[in-house]
């Protein structure tokens, strides 16, 4: 089975373990010991190929360091700053009051008698509970998700897309967008050898995609975003990747993340049209990951949903291109990652295939009901005539404004540090700067950006994810940092590299911060 | 339609044909619509006892659990005295364990470390002191999710022979589907119906033998208490299973989600982990075991929260590393599900303010289940054409249907499994939705139905009343 490896000189490879798990019998203290039944040799080899840098070795080491700090071991810092995962509430974003009120009412309906809850919250809670089996969020729902919530999601999509119809039967609620993405890939990946399904994904990409493709034994087809053009996507690059891939697999899927993760770019309308045209010409299933659709900051950028653009391109496209769009409750102004709420909308899916999909999602029974309820509120927020509207709007605006401010500031700050360049952060919630390391560091390290990040963790207590975890052009190095929201005070501490690798930036640091002891990154 | 140009007309061959539930669900939807439009039927509503979905069938959630969840969701509720002190304390503690103090945050991959730790303490208590290590526990969105992950590790699609997993007949349908979806083969071993659905080790040997040449069996999947069988395994039987997997070098998967649903007076649940530990180090230190539990069943019945876990014993540390990475791609289990698990294993204790109500509620649930089991057993066994083994545990009754040859013939003419034919008729004529035995596999030539018994007593009575009436007429019509 072929698999295109990430074209980067810094790819981490799994070393095979020595033969310590053979079925030979060795006596220990006179008791015969047998080898394991389940070993590296006989387990599913695809699982061995799965990597997920967002929760990878750096993060595991960070957790270990936190443990050591708790045990009183002295370090050059007093806390680890975890800027590795897009976890909004952990980064300081506050939950939206209205959402939590309704969810509390759904959990403990006795609270419906409590005057402290506004009437619009109670109304929504009652409606959701009515739709739940036995009026309880503890009952399984249909595998596709609660029907009235799917109807609400369809209505939301129609409003968002200027009236273009959305059919609730084509909406599948899921356990986070990731669950829906993996389910679609499961459905799509088939064939053997040269006919094995190839899936196009951007480089850099969110490593759920590479992990899922490795897990399924699919062929990963990389297309490169252009760092020099603000991570823009060019159809000529798509064509190049596709033509090369056709020699050893059967390309059938094109995945695109918009706004991008980790890159934060927001694709232009023209670009989206080009991608749709390409998908049609090349007969590809389009997967549009749009979980950051409300995280758009740059003034000259706007989110265009793939569905809207598809339909506005006319029936030649809208009745033929097969597509799935994904959204989630984990990002945007909600940031409710812990609920695992999400959905996908399917366009032009073959009805027979849809029947198979329904069967496939039944294996996981149903998505968590609290996540479904939360999604319902996101697509059905308070209206201007409702009591919670003012507070809700205020909170939502504040969150988005803060994220926008930080995006701008982060980019500015990084571009002042020698050895670091950063594209404008147009959307999402990350920065993905490029770093230049001293040649010595590159020569010494097997994976230079992993090495850099590990040193940064050990020396400064900052946890990031190296660019190699997302994929990058050969010879380039990056890291991904999540924007944090410390609102107590504006501290202009500059980001710097680990002193052992980057003495020049360390000097910048000591000049600016003016204090010894723990230096921490506070990207406002 | 896009059928001609469909990219997807070639889809993964592992996803197979339509399940019976889809057929019945469509029928139920149609009937409900007809009822809504005023159609006259011998019943006013459809009673759905197809799945093990206790809240849907009218069981109530536990107050303590829901109060804690509400306080965690909306911490404002902790101000003042409206909620009992232990609820507020518990919620405070739980929020302190969440990153950013919010249930909206991701947790560590295997679950919030403190919750995982408390799970390991529970397991140790449950098993009379047998140690449980937190690093061997992974919380997931429901037990089926963990089960699928472990199957995924076991099923090797690159091996020259297809991977096989021994699974019981009858067996919970989702588990079997999971194995097949991954490209594995289910190797059936038949539980002995006449002996109360006992697992007989000779049958395991036969099943393993039958797999020779067909596939490479790597694991044995047991469900205890059984679904749909309702059988609770004896210690002796469990020891035989353990010796079998050790001898035949199989991985043991013990689905124990019904461990809190034991109704019979004679039977008691003991975990596979405990039995294994008591069999001496040669077995206890070598047999590779995965045990599964969940908040979906028992007194909690919180299926919709999606909280479950797997405990892995004696696995190769190198394999464990990969299991960790695999789980990390799912991010983490829903936080409310994790909290529900914690509350399940750390309920209110005597002396706590919430204890009296908690005690009343759980006693009521247990009494209801015991009553329902007795009634279902009695009614079913009083009807000619039904034969129900004792329901010692689990959430279902799984009586055998002795269908008259005419009915079997009629079914075959309609292209339906005979028990599905019966179930479709039952739904149409009596408004009761149960599942056909064919969904769970069964011995050739036998037919069964499965229905949930976790519901308020008066609803159970209504189900039995309708079933009795329908069955009597059916048997007469086809005699």
TrEMBL record, chain A:
<keyword id="KW-0032">Aminotransferase</keyword>
<keyword id="KW-0597">Phosphoprotein</keyword>
<keyword id="KW-0963">Cytoplasm</keyword>
<comment type="function">
    <text>Catalyzes the reversible transamination between alanine and 2-oxoglutarate to form pyruvate and glutamate. Participates in cellular nitrogen metabolism and also in liver gluconeogenesis starting with precursors transported from skeletal muscles.</text>
</comment>
<dbReference type="InterPro" id="IPR015421">
    <property type="entry name" value="PyrdxlP-dep_Trfase_major"/>
</dbReference>
<comment type="similarity">
    <text>Belongs to the class-I pyridoxal-phosphate-dependent aminotransferase family. Alanine aminotransferase subfamily.</text>
</comment>
<dbReference type="InterPro" id="IPR004839">
    <property type="entry name" value="Aminotransferase_I/II_large"/>
</dbReference>
<keyword id="KW-0808">Transferase</keyword>
<dbReference type="InterPro" id="IPR045088">
    <property type="entry name" value="ALAT1/2-like"/>
</dbReference>
<dbReference type="InterPro" id="IPR015422">
    <property type="entry name" value="PyrdxlP-dep_Trfase_small"/>
</dbReference>
<dbReference type="Pfam" id="PF00155">
    <property type="entry name" value="Aminotran_1_2"/>
</dbReference>
<dbReference type="InterPro" id="IPR015424">
    <property type="entry name" value="PyrdxlP-dep_Trfase"/>
</dbReference>
<keyword id="KW-0663">Pyridoxal phosphate</keyword>
<feature type="domain" description="Aminotransferase class I/classII large">
    <location>
        <begin position="105"/>
        <end position="474"/>
    </location>
</feature>
<dbReference type="GO" id="GO:0030170">
    <property type="term" value="F:pyridoxal phosphate binding"/>
</dbReference>
<protein>
    <recommendedName>
        <fullName>Alanine aminotransferase 1</fullName>
        <ecNumber>2.6.1.2</ecNumber>
    </recommendedName>
</protein>
<keyword id="KW-0007">Acetylation</keyword>
<comment type="pathway">
    <text>Amino-acid degradation; L-alanine degradation via transaminase pathway; pyruvate from L-alanine: step 1/1.</text>
</comment>
<dbReference type="GO" id="GO:0042853">
    <property type="term" value="P:L-alanine catabolic process"/>
</dbReference>
<dbReference type="GO" id="GO:0004021">
    <property type="term" value="F:L-alanine:2-oxoglutarate aminotransferase activity"/>
</dbReference>
<dbReference type="GO" id="GO:0005737">
    <property type="term" value="C:cytoplasm"/>
</dbReference>
<comment type="subunit">
    <text>Homodimer.</text>
</comment>
TrEMBL record, chain B:
<dbReference type="GO" id="GO:0004021">
    <property type="term" value="F:L-alanine:2-oxoglutarate aminotransferase activity"/>
</dbReference>
<keyword id="KW-0808">Transferase</keyword>
<dbReference type="InterPro" id="IPR015421">
    <property type="entry name" value="PyrdxlP-dep_Trfase_major"/>
</dbReference>
<dbReference type="Pfam" id="PF00155">
    <property type="entry name" value="Aminotran_1_2"/>
</dbReference>
<keyword id="KW-0032">Aminotransferase</keyword>
<dbReference type="InterPro" id="IPR004839">
    <property type="entry name" value="Aminotransferase_I/II_large"/>
</dbReference>
<feature type="domain" description="Aminotransferase class I/classII large">
    <location>
        <begin position="81"/>
        <end position="467"/>
    </location>
</feature>
<dbReference type="GO" id="GO:0042853">
    <property type="term" value="P:L-alanine catabolic process"/>
</dbReference>
<dbReference type="InterPro" id="IPR045088">
    <property type="entry name" value="ALAT1/2-like"/>
</dbReference>
<comment type="pathway">
    <text>Amino-acid degradation; L-alanine degradation via transaminase pathway; pyruvate from L-alanine: step 1/1.</text>
</comment>
<keyword id="KW-0663">Pyridoxal phosphate</keyword>
<dbReference type="InterPro" id="IPR015424">
    <property type="entry name" value="PyrdxlP-dep_Trfase"/>
</dbReference>
<dbReference type="GO" id="GO:0030170">
    <property type="term" value="F:pyridoxal phosphate binding"/>
</dbReference>
<protein>
    <recommendedName>
        <fullName>alanine transaminase</fullName>
        <ecNumber>2.6.1.2</ecNumber>
    </recommendedName>
</protein>
<comment type="subunit">
    <text>Homodimer.</text>
</comment>
<comment type="similarity">
    <text>Belongs to the class-I pyridoxal-phosphate-dependent aminotransferase family. Alanine aminotransferase subfamily.</text>
</comment>
<dbReference type="InterPro" id="IPR015422">
    <property type="entry name" value="PyrdxlP-dep_Trfase_small"/>
</dbReference>
């Amino acid at each position: 089975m072929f698999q295109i490896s990430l074209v980067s000189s810094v790819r981490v490879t799994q070393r095979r373990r020595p033969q310590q798990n053979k079925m030979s019998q060795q006596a220990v203290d006179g008791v015969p010991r047998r080898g394991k039944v389940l070993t590296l040799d006989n387990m599913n080899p695809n699982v061995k190929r799965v990597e997920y840098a967002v929760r990878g070795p750096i993060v595991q080491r960070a957790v270990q360091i936190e443990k050591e700090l708790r045990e009183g071991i002295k370090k050059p810092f007093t806390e680890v700053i975890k800027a590795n995962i897009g976890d909004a509430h952990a980064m300081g974003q506050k939950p939206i009051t209205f959402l939590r009120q309704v969810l509390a009412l759904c959990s403990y309906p006795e609270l419906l008698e409590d005057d402290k809850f506004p009437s619009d919250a109670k109304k929504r809670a009652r409606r959701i509970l009515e739709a739940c089996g036995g009026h309880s969020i503890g009952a399984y729902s249909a595998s596709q998700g609660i029907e009235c919530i799917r109807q609400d999601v369809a209505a939301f999509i129609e409003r968002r897309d200027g009236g273009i119809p959305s059919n609730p039967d084509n909406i599948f609620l899921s356990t986070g967008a990731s669950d829906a993405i993996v389910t679609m890939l499961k459905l799509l990946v088939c064939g053997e050898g040269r006919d094995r399904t190839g899936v196009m994904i951007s480089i850099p990409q969110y490593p759920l995609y590479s992990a899922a493709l490795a897990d399924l034994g699919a062929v990963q087809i990389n297309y490169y975003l252009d760092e020099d053009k603000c991570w823009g996507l060019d159809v000529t690059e798509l064509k190049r990747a596709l033509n090369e891939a056709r020699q050893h697999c059967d390309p059938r899927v094109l995945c695109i993340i918009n706004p991008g993760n980790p890159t934060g770019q927001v694709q232009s309308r023209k670009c989206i049209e080009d991608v749709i045209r390409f998908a049609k010409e090349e007969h590809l299933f389009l997967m549009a990951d749009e979980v950051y659709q409300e995280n758009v900051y740059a003034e000259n950028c706007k989110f265009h949903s793939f569905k809207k653009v598809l339909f506005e391109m006319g029936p030649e496209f809208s009745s033929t291109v097969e597509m799935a769009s994904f959204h989630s409750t984990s990002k945007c102004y909600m940031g409710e990652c812990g609920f695992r709420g999400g959905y996908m909308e399917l366009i032009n899916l073959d009805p027979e295939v849809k029947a198979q999909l329904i069967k496939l999602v039944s294996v996981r029974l149903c998505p968590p009901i609290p996540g479904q309820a939360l999604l319902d509120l996101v697509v059905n927020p308070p209206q201007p005539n409702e009591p919670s509207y003012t507070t809700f709007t205020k909170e939502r605006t504040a969150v988005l404004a803060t994220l926008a401010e930080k995006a701008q500031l982060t980019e500015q700050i990084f571009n002042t540090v020698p050895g670091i360049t950063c594209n404008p952060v147009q959307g999402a919630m990350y920065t993905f700067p490029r770093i230049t390391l001293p040649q010595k560091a590159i020569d010494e390290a097997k994976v230079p950006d992993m090495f850099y990040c590990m040193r940064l963790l050990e020396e400064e207590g900052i946890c990031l994810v190296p660019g190699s975890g997302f994929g990058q052009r050969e010879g380039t190095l990056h890291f991904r940092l999540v924007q944090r929201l410390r609102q107590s005070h504006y501290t202009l501490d500059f980001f710097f590299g680990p002193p052992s690798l980057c003495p020049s930036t360390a000097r910048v640091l000591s000049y600016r911060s003016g204090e010894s002891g723990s230096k921490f990154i506070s990207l406002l | 339609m896009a059928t001609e140009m469909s990219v997807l007309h070639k889809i993964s061959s592992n996803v197979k044909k339509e399940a019976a539930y889809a057929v019945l669900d469509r029928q139920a939807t149609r009937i409900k619509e007809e009822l809504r439009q005023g159609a006259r039927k011998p019943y006013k509503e459809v009673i759905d006892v197809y799945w093990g979905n206790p809240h849907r069938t009218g069981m109530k959630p536990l107050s303590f659990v829901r109060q804690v969840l509400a306080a965690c969701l909306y911490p404002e509720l902790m101000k003042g005295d409206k909620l009992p002190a232990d609820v507020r304390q518990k919620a405070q503690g739980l929020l302190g364990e969440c990153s950013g103090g919010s249930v909206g945050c991701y947790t560590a991959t295997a679950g919030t470390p403190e919750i995982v730790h408390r799970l390991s303490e529970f397991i140790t208590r449950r098993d009379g002191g047998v140690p449980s290590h937190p690093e061997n526990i992974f919380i997931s969105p429901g037990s089926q999710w963990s089960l699928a992950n472990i199957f995924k590790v076991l099923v090797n699609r690159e091996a020259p022979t297809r991977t096989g997993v021994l699974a019981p007949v009858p067996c919970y349908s989702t588990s079997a589907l999971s194995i097949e979806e991954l490209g594995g083969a289910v190797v059936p071993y038949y539980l002995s119906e006449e002996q109360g659905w006992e697992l007989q080790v000779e049958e395991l040997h036969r099943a393993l033998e039958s797999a020779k040449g067909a596939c490479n069996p790597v694991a044995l999947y047991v469900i205890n208490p059984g679904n749909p069988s309702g059988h609770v395994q004896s210690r002796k039987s469990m020891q035989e299973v353990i010796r079998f997997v050790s001898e035949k070098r199989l991985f043991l998967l013990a689905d124990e989600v019904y461990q809190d649903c034991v109704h019979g007076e004679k039977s008691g649940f003991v975990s596979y982990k405990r039995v294994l530990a008591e069999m001496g180090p040669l077995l206890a230190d070598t047999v590779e075991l995965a045990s599964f539990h969940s908040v979906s069943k028992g007194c909690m019945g919180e299926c919709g929260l999606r909280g479950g876990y797997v405990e892995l014993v004696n696995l190769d540390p190198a394999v464990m590393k990969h299991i960790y990475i695999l789980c990390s791609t799912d991010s983490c289990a829903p936080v409310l599900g994790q909290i529900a698990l914690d509350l399940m294993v750390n309920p209110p204790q005597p002396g706590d303010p919430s204890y009296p109500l908690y005690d009343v509620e759980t006693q009521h649930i247990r009494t209801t289940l015991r009553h329902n089991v007795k009634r279902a057993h009695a009614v079913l066994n009083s009807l000619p054409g039904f034969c129900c083994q004792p329901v010692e545990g689990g959430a279902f009754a799984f009586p055998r249907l002795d269908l008259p040859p005419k009915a079997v013939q009629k079914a075959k003419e309609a292209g339906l499994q005979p028990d599905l034919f019966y179930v479709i008729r039952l739904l149409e004529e009596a408004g009761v939705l149960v599942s056909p035995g064919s969904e769970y596999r069964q011995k050739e030539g036998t037919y069964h139905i499965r229905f949930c018994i976790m519901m308020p007593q008066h609803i159970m009575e209504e189900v039995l009343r309708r079933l009795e009436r329908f069955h009597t007429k059916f048997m007469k019509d086809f005699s």
